[in-house]
Structures are given as structure tokens and as C-alpha cells.
Amino acid sequence: MKPIDGITAALAVSALLAGTALAQNSQQAPNPQERGTTNMQPTPPAQVPNFQTGTGAPSNAPIGAAEFGVQTKSNATAASTGPQVKAPDYVRQTAMTDLFEIRAGELAREKATTPAIRSFAQRMINEHTASSKKLTKVVQSENANLAPPGRLDRQHWVLLSDLQRTSGTSFDRDYLKMQANGHQQALALQEDYSRNGEDPKLKQMASEETNVVKSHLDELKQIDPLIASQ
To answer: Are residue 113 and residue 213 in the same domain, yes or no?
Structure first.
């Protein structure tokens, strides 16, 4: 056997030391999962706005959220306290209802095909004329700034024009539908103001008119139960 020279021996020792160091490093190195949990903080998830209908919108809710079913605290408070209809709005809406019912009643008195509808139309003329006079008297005694309107607004003119273009049984049907819808809205207005109104005399009138409107709806049910119940 040939003797190992100095260079060959040095190379052999170096290779042995390098292998030993590599083995020690592999035993001490943590696995990737351990490294991730001990040395790195996980990225927090993105925060999503928590919209809850009717429980108050969060601070980052978009403007106008209440229109999509999300109420702010101020809106929720306003909806549960205080008058729902202000005095000027009550006067305007009540007066507009009276004006429309009188004009529509005049049409129905001439164009309706049945005695029951013509009789109802005459009742609308009489009782809404009385309501209009009562409202004017109350307003004059309370506040001149609450003067009721003296003519129909555009919305009611359109309804009246549509009704005027019909005839025969079509007129009867359309008139009764308008009466049912209009009196349901009028009932909601009168009941609301009678409970929550801010003016005592107008509240008293609203309470009285609530009973009148209910009696109108009762007569509509007798004329046509199907239409009146819609």
C-alpha cells in the first residue's frame, strides 16, 4: 500500500469536518411550520363593515344608508319620537284630499253607471266640502301661515284627468279604486296626526275625521267588497 501524502490527508480531514457540520445544522433547523409560528406574525384579515338593519349604521356606513334599510341612530330616534306629520303638512294633505274628492265626486255624479256609486259620490261632495270648511276655520283661528291650498297640485290633476277620460263600467271601476286607495291614505294621515300631532285643535279635527274616513271605507265595502279590500 502506498503511503498517503500530506495533501491527500488534508483534503480527507476537510471533507470529514464539512460533513459533520452539515449534519448538525440539519438537526437544529426548525421546520417551516415551526418557523412560521415562532418567528412570523400572521397577517390580520381585512375588516368588513358589519351592517345591521334597524340597529344603527356603523360609523363607516355610506351616506344615504337609511334609504336601503340601514338606520342611523339619529334617524331611528326621530322615527320613534315626536310628531310624524308636521302641522303644515297635515293641513296641506287634508286640504288636497278634500279638493280632489269634491272634483272626483262631481265627475262620478255625472258619469257613474250605478245609483250606489252616484250616491256615494254625492256624499263625498257634501262631507269633503264640510271638512274643507272646518279645516279653514281651524287654521284661521290658529295660524294664518297654515292657509290650506286652494287648487289641486299636479299629482291630483293627473289622477283627475285620467279618470275623466274613462266612461261606463271602466269609469266605475277606476273611480272606486281611486276612492279605496285615497281613503286608505287619508285614514293613515288622520290617525297619525290624531296621535302625534303638535297642534291641539288640528289633533281634535284629525280624531273626528278618522271616524268619517272609516265610515267612507265601510260604504265602499258595501258597494264593492273586492275593490275596497285591495
So the answer is: yes
* HSE toward the beta carbon, residue 192, CA cutoff 13 A: 19
> How confident is the prediction for the chain on average, in pLDDT?
74
- Are 183 and 199 found together in one domain? yes
For cell 279604486, the residue is 177
Q: What is the pLDDT of residues 172-218, one digit of tens each?
A: 999 999 999 999 999 999 999 999 998 999 999 999 999 999 999 99
Rounded Cα gap, residues 45 and 35, in angstroms: 21
29 phi, psi to nearest 5 deg: -70, 130
Sheet strands (E) in 37-178: none
Alpha-carbon distance of 212 to 135, in angstroms, equals 14
Nearest to 186 by CA among 208, 217, 213, 168: 213
Phi, psi values for residue 116, rounded to 5°: -65, -40
151 and 127 in a common domain:
yes
Query: DSSP letter string over 176-188?
Result: HHHHHHHHHHHHH
φ/ψ of residue 58, rounded to 5? -70, 170
Residue range of the domain that includes 75: 54-83
| Cell numbers representing residue 135 in the block | 279645516
Same domain, 127 and 74: no
How far apart are the two ends of the chain, measured CA to CA in Å?
117
